[in-house]
Amino acid sequence: MSFFNILADATEDHSKLGGKAIDVAHRTHNGILNAVGVSKILPSPVKSLADGVFDANKALVEGAGSTTAGMLRSIGGAFGATQQNSHQVPEHQHPNNRDGTRGYGDDSDDNDSHVDEDDESDGEDKDKDDEDNEDDEDDEDNEDKVGEGSLGEEWAPPPRHLRARPDRHDARDHHFKYDSKHRLSAYVDLRHLCPPVYDQGQMGSCTSHAVAAAFEFSVMQQNLPHFSPSRLFIWYKSRELEQRAGIHDAVKKNIGVSLRNAIKSVSPKNKGGVCSEEDWSYEVCKYNKKTLYFVTGAKARRLPSAAATKHSYDHTAVQYAKFDPKGPISLSKQLMQCLDKGIPFVFGMSHCDVIKGTQVSETGHGVPKKLTAKQLKDKKPHNHSLMAVGYIKSEKQFIIRNSWGAHWGEGGYFYMPFSLLKYCYDFWSIKVNRPHHK
């Protein structure tokens, strides 16, 4: 690891500690007010103002740390790029040495239904004979097939079989309303407004990570009380919807989900929502690589606690919009306008192997503008869910947030050429509802 990366990690760690210190001060402040009885007589606007000050300071400290760390990693990557002999591809990251398991199909309409309607057929009982054999698949006899519960010392991206799932077309979707009078800025970068970059580990939870990032961004953007959504909760509830649609034992497996189901899981119209990360924290779990079942007792396959579920009803996404790639306005213009209005969007990317190269992994730069003939022939490409947070109009690039940790790319981000939009799918934006407490 280069000096700049070490310095970046230290910067990010210290900014997180600063954020935690502000949280402690916030709780202490509220505790004192409650203890002396002042809290009961303070007007709500005053309380909200105080909460907003603490939350804004925390976001400022953590955002500054994340942005500075990203800059340091970028400098380190640029400096290291001049040392050609020092950038050989590590054996564990070489494309030919990664898990070659094929992913889920391309971006065809084959998975889901309208985000606002609870109308999927119940397919839970299909293939019931598999249930009797499930525990056998988790036995120690299969330990050599079980994925590790952490990234380990040698990091690698999640295997191709832990892929996101495309949405099924639904004519009832609410679409993004393009403003023809809006003049686009030349450059937009929302990274400083984003929460710290998440790390999904060796689990197929990229979609829940993308939606959680958009959810938390919306909370911070509206200056709502600090709330970090539980990625594991969103993933479990999304897999519940996949299971109801016919994917047997989906909640027990390490599998990807569609963006529509992830958004649907936090929609109030479907009695959805999400609890906080503190209520149901993220945990990378072991699973059987052959069957994809999580081992018995793994948190990722457990029903979230009753308390977590109760708290989830207070935090929902109230608005969403899907972008129409076949509409009269070009997709890139729609997406840039959304970003220019200060709203990130989530989306799926097929052929995401293009971001696994050494240069992209170390600097966030170098994503090819087009696919190779071999990649185009891949009928079951590796699908991956991401969040866009900006664009550089002159360079025809989007700034994309990944979920492989802040050590990857440019502080967890990379630059995607507009030309790759044709290999992306299911573009959504969401806005969070103000929490309500009973």
UniProtKB/TrEMBL annotation:
CDD domains of this UniProt entry?
Peptidase_C1
Q: Where is the Peptidase C1A papain C-terminal domain?
A: 184-421
Question: Signal peptide position in this chain?
Answer: none
In what ranges is there compositional bias, type Basic and acidic residues?
A: 89-105, 164-173
Q: Where is this region: Disordered?
A: 83-173
Regions of biased composition (Acidic residues) lie at 106-143
Biological process according to GO? proteolysis
MF terms from GO for this chain are: cysteine-type peptidase activity
Q: Which family does it belong to?
A: Belongs to the peptidase C1 family.
Q: What is this protein called?
A: Peptidase C1 family
